Every structure is written in structure tokens, then in C-alpha cells.
Amino acid sequence: MTAVQGTAVDIPTDDGTADAYLAHPGDGRPHPAVLLYMDAFGLRPQLTSMADRLAEAGYTVLVPNVFYRHGRAPVVDLPEFIDPGARPEIFERISPIIQALTPEPAMRDAGAYLRTLADSPVAADGPIAITGYCMGARLALLTAGTYPDRVAAAAGFHGGRLATDAPDSPHLVAGKVTAELYFGHADQDPSLPVEQMERLEEALTTAGVRHTCEVYAGAHHGYTQADTSSYDRAGDERHWAALLDLLKRTF
Question: Could you tell me the pTM of the whole model?
């Protein structure tokens, strides 16, 4: 098995410099590229280990700190095991940062992340895939709709607020998406009630988007994140199977 190389990189954006983690097989060859959008807790060992796992499977993976306007990662100090129920102050600090990252600046940043992958000697030419977690699922869908010529597939896991009544709700980009999409919803997730799941499904179907939306029974928001109290091993293993299957179809 080829060893994985992981390095810290800086990405110039229109608004500053985003710190990021880049993982890729250490064989010196370009590999299909995956943009991994973080969850609300940010760029940390859990996410770099996920990037390394994708790199072991043959992909070049970029994990940007999308909160870079508020500092380099870790933007918020986190315990090794994250239990928001026991540490409510964590979300009190993170929530305003999430709210500040509205779709317009987030999609400007996405252009910079895509350029970084396009220019990287370890990333293969052509469209990329995206996987996103929690708020990263929203960013994945928005990026697929904003840069349809650059995104061949996008997946989102335990995403919240994917299909709201807001004028900038992510589901409203469905008509511009050309990628294949996969969503693994958590059925114990108050940030994505059934009516939003149905609204997303209807928008994607009406737009003719190739997609799969599955509900993971018994899973909570954050079920893929092993360093949190929301982790669900069965849901996480199902997520990996679905993601790797999507990537195989894409590349």
C-alpha cells in the first residue's frame, strides 16, 4: 500500500488566506481530487484522519478551514472528546461564526479551493468530487450548484438546514447542478426535519438531478464524527460505503 502524505497548505482567497490540510497518495502521481468540507467543529485530527482514509483509497483530498476569517485552526479550543451537551459554551462560540459564513463569501472561497486543486500537481485534471459534513453538506450542495462545470459528484452527511424557507437556502441551486448527489440524513436531527427532507427531494427530482437521499435510522446530527458524542459506528460505516461507491462511479 502506498503511504499517504499529508501536509498543511495555505490557500489565497479574495478575503485572505485559508489554512488547509492536503492529503494524497505518496506515489508522486496525480489522483482524482476530493474537496472535504468540515463540520462546525472545524479542521482537527478527526477530519485529517478522514482525509487520510480517502487518500489511502486513491484520492487527493483538500480540507480547508472555512472559518479562516476568524483565525487559523483550531478557531475554537476543543476537548479531545466533544460533547456539546456537557459543554454548551462550545456551540455558543461556534454559532456566530457559522452564521457569519453566508453563501456569498462561502462560494467565493469555494472558487479558491477549486483553483488550488486545479493547480495542484497531485490532483488529476478534470472535475472533482465533494463530501461535506454538518454545515459542510450545505457547502457541498451550494458548490455543486455554483460551479457545475467543476463538480462531478457531491455528498452530504448529517446536513442541516438544506431546504429552508430562506431566499438563499441551498436547495434552490438544484436547477444548476449537473453533478450526481448523495445525502445521508440523520433521522434524529432537529436541524433537518422531515419537511426539509421532502422539500430537498422534490427540488432535486424536479430539476432532474441524479441523486440518492437516504435516511439513517437512529442516527444523530454528527454521526460520522468519532470524536463527538453523536458518533454512531453503524452510520459511519454506512457513510464510508456510500461515499466510496459514489467516488468509484464518478472517477
Answer: 0.98
